[in-house]
Amino acid sequence: MGCADTGIAGGAKAGNSLSASEAVSPSVGTPGEGRNAENKPSGQIEESGEYTSKEDVAAYLSKYGHLPENYITKKEAKALGWVSSEGNLQEAAPGKSIGGDHFGNYEEILPEKDGREYFECDIDSSGGYRGAKRLVYSNDGLTYYTEDHYKTFELLCGEE
Question: Per the residue annotation, which of 69, 120, 147, 160 is the catalytic one?
Answer without folding.
Answer: 120
